[in-house]
TrEMBL record:
Chain ranges of the DUF362 domain: 239-343
One Pfam assignment: DUF362
InterPro entries per record: DUF362 (IPR007160), TAT_signal (IPR006311)
Domain of life where this protein originates: Bacteria
UniProt-recorded name of the protein: DUF362 domain-containing protein
Length: 414
């Protein structure tokens, strides 16, 4: 399946690689988080100390709800998905019922973004059925319809997956930008707004960005814009909380793509520079450093991973049906690191079942039995590095001197 992107997927990431030596050399690349909002609020608490600062109120906790009838023969069952969402929210929060669980996160007056992930369309992307259940949960918590926005980085990907067609009347939808382009430093947003209540907050915020000393191929190193990744205006100026719906997938550059990468590459511009050429794969650094931006940390309050259908090879674009499987699971967490380590284990288990090497041992210079690897070595270690920045819990067993370990709870609904 062809991809429209030169940067990523089997097609857009197929030509990319990075040597192990380059990874080691780039591991110390400096990063600067620029946040005008944080500067203005310097007298207040830092985002990491607030209730909703990543890793959130449930560090290390990952609830996996398995229900075998969420998808059968590629047909999804919304009622089954709704039951799994309700159970997962209860198990994550300890609430007596699903409504109470949603109310523990959201309240009237909140403006909530729902971050979708359509990259794997049509084989494996965030399910519209799951999106609709999140909307119902938000409404049950008292969030007004006009204060809910479903979005993706590129509007055209959202439309291509027909996610806009599933939305109820009154729910706004958009993209931070219009479509993918090779030059990713412009701040321009969507001009032809066809949805209500967005107040023209598409595009990217000139005052909120992450600086990382790497630029895209062919870009001018003297232009400071090429070193920046700006946060979307929707993220900085419209919503105060975000529910993110990543997909259970492997990734040709980052090893796996889950909660962390859904934030780092889905909420900012100029992301292709993180893995733009065969010798500049720095997802290990780029992902945790972008997620560490205080606005992203504060506003990304809940992750519900769509594991209804998984991708164990060829992600994120889900290029071949035979590399996907009906997994029938949803994962719930406020801790993106813990969620992604559970994801990593699940992908490696499936790859072992299929006779493929682990993602961390896959690459052009290591193990490439299918001849499809585009990077010298994949980089799932971004998950552990994110933990070192205080973005979540990585270890399944608490090391000596550390307080927390991952609490992975599996609920089988039959």
């Amino acid at each position: 399946m062809a991809s429209t992107y030169p940067c990523g997927g089997l097609k857009r990431r197929g030509f990319l690689s990075a040597t192990a030596a380059a990874v080691a050399a780039q591991a110390s690349l400096p990063s600067v988080l620029v946040s005008a909002q944080e500067s203005r609020a310097a007298a207040g608490k830092p985002a990491a100390d607030e209730k909703w600062g990543v890793p959130g109120p449930y560090p290390g906790r990952v609830v996996e709800v398995r229900k075998p009838d969420m998808i059968r023969n590629d047909v999804k069952n919304r009622e089954a998905i709704a039951q799994a969402v309700g159970r997962g929210m209860k198990e994550l929060t300890g609430a007596d019922d699903a409504v109470g669980a949603w109310r523990s996160f959201f309240e009237p007056g909140d403006v909530v973004g729902i971050k979708m992930n359509p990259v794997g369309n049509p084989l494996a992307n965030s399910s519209s059925e799951l999106m609709l259940e999140v909307i119902e949960g938000l409404k049950a918590a008292g969030v007004k319809t006009k204060d809910i926005v479903a979005f993706e980085r590129y509007r055209d990907e959202f439309v291509g997956a027909k996610m806009h067609e599933a939305l109820p009347d009154g729910i706004a939808w958009t993209g931070l930008g219009v479509e993918y382009n090779a030059h990713q430093t412009d701040l321009k947003g969507v001009d032809d707004l066809r949805t209500p209540n967005l107040d023209n907050v598409t595009g990217y915020d000139p005052d909120e960005f992450v600086v990382m000393e790497i630029i895209g191929q062919g870009e001018d190193p003297k232009d400071d814009r090429n070193r920046r990744s700006h946060l979307g205006l929707l993220v900085t100026r419209r919503v105060n909380k975000i529910v993110l719906l990543p997909v259970l997938k492997d990734h040709g550059s980052a090893g796996v793509t889950g909660a962390l990468k859904n934030m780092s590459h889905g909420l900012v511009n100029n992301v292709c520079r993180s893995h733009g050429t065969p010798d500049t794969n720095v997802c290990n650094q780029f992902i945790p450093q972008v997620v560490a931006h205080p606005i992203i940390r504060k506003k990304c309050v809940l992750h519900i991973m769509d594991g209804i259908k998984g991708v164990y090879q060829g992600g994120p674009a889900a290029s071949r049906p035979e590399w996907t499987w009906e997994n029938n699971a949803l994962l719930f967490a406020t801790d993106p690191v813990a969620m992604d380590h559970v994801l990593w284990r699940a992908i490696d288990a499936k790859r072992k079942e299929k006779g493929l090497p682990p993602v961390g041992a896959s690459g052009k210079l290591v193990l490439d039995p299918l001849g499809t690897e585009g990077f010298d070595v994949r980089q799932p270690q971004h998950i552990a590095l994110a933990a070192r920045l205080g973005l979540g819990i990585f270890d399944f067993k608490s090391p000596k001197g550390r307080r927390f370990s991952i609490d992975h709870r599996i609920v089988n609904m039959g």
